[in-house]
Specification:
The chain has 355 residues and is of the alpha/beta class. It is built from 12 helices and 14 strands. Belongs to the D-isomer specific 2-hydroxyacid dehydrogenase family.
């Protein structure tokens, strides 16, 4: 949160100080779109990424003479955001409650100078339209890398240990040890491969080292030799050669035109039968139907994936909940049941289980 606050101040200050003003100095309109925290806002003074916390920059902005408006109302022709499109200079939003910036909105935003994501990812912005309009698009690089890496480790352990079905048993008052233990495994000795070894991928590999795993990584660039030696990770130049070696595959690559649909039916077929897949990146990196089919056949034991067509911040049926699905082997019916929520970093997802 502190990193968001500091980076947001720096980016806003730089943008407003360096661009020609459409209005007089000290009178910029800045709109922040965040989710409401309600009763939880007062439970943590550092909880700033919400409407109530206003990213922790209200006092600073207003002391500079700027007009700062914060809302969670971002959709529909009569929403609060629409009232400010035409004269706002800066729009700040988050991946967890994104304000979608379409070409049509950009066209109407005559004063707009800066589109700032308080987090990572700009999937909610029409980037070609923003570039054509000469807008600055910025995000807070590295703001949630630790959170995501820790969350990935959490998911690996939960899925390997078969924790979620065990939790469901307890909730339902059952106690069938064999029903859980028959597919609960130790992480030690397993081969874990990360597709992408940037900030998050490297942190994940470092956190996996104490578990005595075999660590592999695929990326365009190799990790620094000293760090690679310290972690004990092995570089795999050929992704398709790495996949059949892995018991667990973690996807840590950004969504680009090259990575969209990267994990299709053909690539999934190269994975080891019974593999566990954790995708904390963008859902569109994986072909949803191919993943579902592989789970149904048992080729993939468990897969945790982000939003089907975009990213983990997309809403599910307009309810304000990010979309995700937890596909499990051998569960023919598709009744979505909320299992666990992990509101940490980008992982603010509702997991759905096929029961």
């Amino acid at each position: 949160m502190a990193m968001w606050r500091a980076a947001a101040r720096q980016l806003v200050d730089r943008a407003l100080g360096s661009r020609a003003a459409h209005t007089s100095a000290g009178s910029k309109k800045i709109v922040g779109v965040f989710y409401k925290a309600g009763e939880y806002a007062d439970k943590n003074p550092n909880f700033v990424g919400c409407v109530e916390g206003a990213l922790g920059i209200r006092n600073w902005l207003e002391s500079q003479g700027h007009h700062y408006i914060v809302t969670d109302d971002k959709e529909g022709p009569n929403c609060e955001l629409e009232k400010h499109i035409e004269d706002m200079h800066v729009l700040i939003t988050t991946p967890f409650h994104p304000a979608y910036v379409t070409a049509e909105r950009i066209k109407r935003a005559k004063n707009l100078e800066l589109l700032l994501t308080a987090g990572i990812g700009s999937d909610h912005i029409d980037l070609p339209a923003a570039a054509a309009a000469g807008l600055t698009v910025a995000e807070v690089t590295g703001s949630n890398t630790v959170s995501v890496a820790e969350d990935e480790l959490l998911r690996i352990l939960i899925l390997l240990r078969n924790f979620l079905p065990g939790y469901q048993q307890v909730v339902q008052g059952e106690w069938n040890v064999a029903g859980i233990a028959h597919r609960a495994y130790d992480l030690e000795g397993k081969t874990v491969g990360t597709v992408g070894a940037g900030r998050i991928g490297r942190l994940l590999l470092q956190r996996l080292k104490p578990f005595n795993c075999n660590l592999l990584y695929h990326d365009r660039l190799k990790i620094a030799p000293e760090l690679e030696k310290e972690i004990g990770a092995k570089f795999e130049e050929d992704l398709d050669a790495m996949l059949p070696k892995c018991d667990v595959i973690v996807i840590n690559t950004p969504l680009t035109e090259k990575t969209r649909g990267m994990f299709n039916k053909e690539r999934i077929a190269k994975m080891k039968k019974g593999v566990i897949v954790v995708n904390n990146a963008r859902g569109a990196i994986m072909d949803t139907q191919a993943v579902a089919d592989a789970c149904s056949s048992g080729h993939i034991a468990v897969a945790v994936c982000g939003g089907r067509e975009g990213h983990a911040g997309q809403v599910l049926q307009g309810r304000g909940l990010p979309r995700a699905e937890l596909h499990r082997q051998g569960r023919p019916a598709r009744q979505p049941v909320p299992v666990i929520a992990t509101p940490i970093g980008r992982s603010c997802m509702l997991f759905l289980m096929r029961l």
